[in-house]
Queue: 3 jobs
Job 1
Amino acid sequence: MTTITGRVVPGDQRGRTLGFPTANISITGREDLDGVWAGTVRLPSGAAYPAAVSIGRRQTFYSGSAEPLLEAHVIGYTGDLYGLELRVDLEAFLREQLPFRNVQDLIDQMQRDVAHTLVARESWETCGGLGRADAAVSVGGRAAVAAAVADTPR
């Protein structure tokens, strides 16, 4: 498991308009983590929430020159996280970053990412933490993950 700690910064508010509000944390020098992850966000209070976490340069909306960003869709949380220091545990690697042809394709994939996050969470709660190599098994096997990525419009 990889843990990233950082302060939530304002973003473009795009996730909120798409139905997936995110807590954004600036991240540099961790290109090895680029992709979409199933994880857990821990608040300063100690409360923990499942999260679908995207780390990368937001290829659908920006050229490759955009600053890398960690965007965590905190499942089940509805409060304000701006300015808070969060701990983000990356539990299972779900897929690589992909550019999407349009916003609806992105929304459809985000729905799948949230579903895969919840399945992965069930797995690590019963079996312990998972890493990048084990993540595909937690969401239906490598073939299922490869098929989900292959079916994603680009």
Note: The first strand starts at residue 2 and ends at 7.
Job 2
Amino acid sequence: MEKYLQELVGKTAKFKVDSLAIIQSNNSNGTDPLSTTPLLIGDIGLQTGVAIHSGNAANVRVALEGTVGLTVATEATAIITLTIERNGSSTAGTGVLIHQQVFETDFVRVFSPLSITAGDFPPAALVLAGEIRYTLFISSTSDAIILSGPVGFNGSASAGTTTS
């Protein structure tokens, strides 16, 4: 993860601030249909206090990754949306949009798990608060899309300045 973060921002991070992973489901047995109402499937809080004490509050970088397994109940065309927000509540649209990925199914009945990857450079004021919350939501234009799992969401925060 650290190597990925370094490549993502093109800088060498001096130290890791925090890392967290959440697994909503570790199997493919889910039967919940999706809807146009975004469903919260990932929620992490990254601790940023160590950046405060090191004087690096303005140099925090966050890498976020989520994966979700889906199946299709019947042949349908649907648009599936994965959204990552910063410091919102458990309701989509209440936080700052970090990244949104849209997938069109085009009548595909079976497909690989969907993934979303994002980076964030949170403002120093948020870092100074000591924790930054990131949430992952999913929605679909068709209830034929089933949240079968597995579902995972993880994030890593690093801080420091460039060394080169």
Note: The helical segments are 2-9, 49-54, 124-128.
Job 3
Amino acid sequence: MQNTESTHPLTQEENNFKQHTQHQVFFNNKQRGASLENFIFWMIAASLILVVIVGLYMKSTSGARNLALKSDVGVMIAASQQWGGNNKTGISMTKLCETGSHYLTNEICGATKNGMNANPYGGNYAMAVDPSNPSRVKIDITGIDANYVNVVANDLAPLSLIIAD
């Protein structure tokens, strides 16, 4: 077997080549590609972005539901005025939703024509005369998301009447 290494001292160029070759061998043994840390970082980043997007979606859909609810209540108040004038005794969602009455839209009346499962939150609308004042109605709205009850109440407050004692 022949010895490939020479006995003479290495030149600068040969020394640089030898070091470069040793570095290549060292780096060739390392695994290439994404590390676990990179994967975890990008998964956390993607999760945070998803949380922000879902939050914005929830806020926008809540705003749209709130706007639709406020509009529906305004229409219901106007319909009650048309139906009973100053005496609304006997008023109900069923009466306002009767076929051919045209007081309320199909969206407000719902599939059962009585306000059940008709509000934008999936709950019910109900209407009855105020027993203390037959010229006024009470509108009940169920199914509002607990996180938005105060927002809905604040938006509907201008539509209600204030009674001074």
Note: Residues 36-84 form the longest helix (49 residues).
